[in-house]
Amino acid sequence: MPIDGNILVRSLLRYRTQLLAYILAIVHDDHLAEDIYQDVSSLAYEKREQIDGEAALPGWLRTTARYQSLRAVRQRSARPRVLDAHVLDLLESDWPALDAQDSAHRIAVLRDCLARLSPYARRLVELRYGEGVSGEKLARRMSRDLNTIYVALTRAHRSLSECVRRRLAREAAR
Amino acid sequence: MIDDRFLNLSMRYLDGMLDDAAFAEFQGALVADADFRRGFAELCCQTRELAELVRTAGADPVGGRRWGRLAYFAAAAVIVLGFTAAITVLIRFAPHRAASALPPVATVVDTDGAVWAAGESATPGEQLAPGFVHLLSGSATLEFFSGAKVTLRGPAEFGLNSAMRGELRRGLVMADVPHKAHGFTIGAPGMAVVDLGTRFSLDVDANGESRVAVLEGRVRVEHGGEHAELSIGQQARAHDNEWAILPAPGSGAGPSPEEPAIRGAAVYRPDLPMWARGDGLGDEDRIVVVPERRDIRITQPVAVDIKLPGEYRAIPPTPLPAGPAVGESYLLRIPPRRSGELTASLTFRRRVLGVIARPARLAATDGALGPPGVKSWAKNVTPRGLTLNKLNRVNISPDRRTITFTLSTGGAGEVRLLVATDPLNNP
After folding, report:
1. What is the DSSP string of chain A?
2. Of B267, B231, B273, which Cα lies nearest the Cα of B251?
């Protein structure tokens, strides 16, 4: 049964984080990822009669996003490195598990976890993800070498993901 | 659990910072280890979650006085949208709670995991007075008394001005506007989106870039004194004082699926944002080829400067008619020649119908041959046109499919190509 327009709009919002993450894995460019997300949303709405219900939507969105992402990358003069098709195929089985995540709740938990980072790590995260400052520019701005910056970001990511995992597990156990 | 080395590689990959060897190592790890693949997918998700979280962390305290920003936005609105909009900006900054004496303009009809900023709450059935709401996460659907429905996705800051107007300061909304609310408007930095019976999404990112995409029907996008109508699939973006209409995916307004075969110093850039087409191309050594419009129905011949095969060392004094035909247009940005000769050839599947190289003719054809919704490039692109002489030559091949530029002198310039797409114009 084709997907209802209202459900589609709600689902596009619900899966936004996961779909942007999927696109980012291919194009690794935040701005381009946002453009492609918009394209995919428009196409989903246009083709909603062809989507076989809400359950089929995440898969449809990813298939379309993959096609649109690779097309966008091909059209770029300075083509970014893109994972080989067979690697993208292997990754396909890992995305559905993320669809089930409640990204709104995860973001709320992440907020608490971010507050527990050291001021330096928090600043790095804010600059990198809030202002979109690249690793290279971060290194210059913080007067550190590039490797040091990536080591610090690696630690920050690890701390955050462990904190989120712990908190969600604690909530689930209640 | 994935190790630090792989996590580090993953982040560098997402930043485009891997060299050949590191990229091979990264791909190899993904192929070899299912845990790494799961970890990489999770990292991509966490990266996006962090972006959404951190971009709202600087939100103003709810209900707090924001006169500094108020003045900034009012000033920006005067520049970008004009005086009337500036007044609207002033009105829209009335804090939601403090303004509760005002009659309500919308009702919360649904929420899904909605987390509101401290001091705010909005549950289904609650009526909202003019003012701002700050949705930190989750989603909420508000129905304006006009019948227009907007679904906010947190993090978002959304203002309610009246039953017919909202204001998105940051975040994402999807609007579903029934016929009776025709004219419902959502303002955003740099643009106002007026509904003409439609569904659309509007997104304002942390850098203040606004983007609207039409899902169904049409909208009118206003930017300063200019406006454009967008139809299904089309998008528009505004940032600072620039704005642009983006093509719909797979629509006739999109980039050509058949990019020209290029030899020499030229590059095809279908992705170039419109506000980057002026001075900020960042490509000083090559001709930048930008597709402008597809499926142009040329029923009345268009005056072009160069059309017939041969080598041109001057622009002919008399224009020639091109068409009738169905065609597509390309804008070619010519870099300044500093040293040496620049040579580039572009070969198309079908005939080049004409080259427009005089500044006045470029300006005159912006509306009909430029991207939909763009009246003129003149303020974005200076200088326009191309001067030909014995050191700057253009050659059209006998089959009219290939155009070659041999340029040795002069500053930056710009020409427009009109290329046939209908089978009648097959060579």
Report:
1. -BPPHHHHHHHHHHTHHHHHHHHHHHH--HHHHHHHHHHHHHHHHHTGGGSB-GGGHHHHHHHHHHHHHHHHHHT-SSPPP---HHHHHHHGGGHHHHHTS-HHHHHHHHHHHHHTS-HHHHHHHIIIIIS---HHHHHHHTT--HHHHHHHHHHHHHHHHHHHHHHHHHHHH-
2. B231
* B53/chain A closest Cα distance in angstroms: 6
A5, A41, A161: residue with CB nearest B213? A41
Kindly list the residues from chain A whose CB atom is less than 8 angstroms away from the CB atom of residue B4: 151, 154-155, 158
Q: By percentage, how much of chain B surpasses pLDDT 70?
A: 77
Residue B115: which of A6, A104, A129 has the nearest Cβ? A104
Q: What pLDDT sits at residue B1?
A: 61
Residue owning tokens 């590689």: B9
Q: What number is the ipTM of this complex?
A: 0.94
Cα torsion B97, B100, B106, B109: sign: positive
Cα A75 to chain centroid distance, Å, stands at 22
Backbone phi, psi, residue B400, to 5°: 65, 20
- Interface check A85 vs B, CB under 8 A: no
Dist. CA B214–CA B194, nearest whole Å: 11
A71 or A119: which leads in pLDDT? A119
- Taking contacts as CB-CB distances below 8 angstroms, the residues of chain B near A146 are 17
> What residues of chain B lie within 8 A of the CB of A35, using their CB?
246
- The pTM of the full predicted model, rounded to 2 decimals, is 0.49
For position B372, what pLDDT does the model report? 59
B83-92 vs B67-80: helix crossing angle, rounded to 10: 160
pLDDT digits over B134-170, tens only? 888 888 889 998 889 998 888 889 999 888 889 998 8
Tell me phi and psi for residue B360, to 5 degrees.
Answer: -65, -35
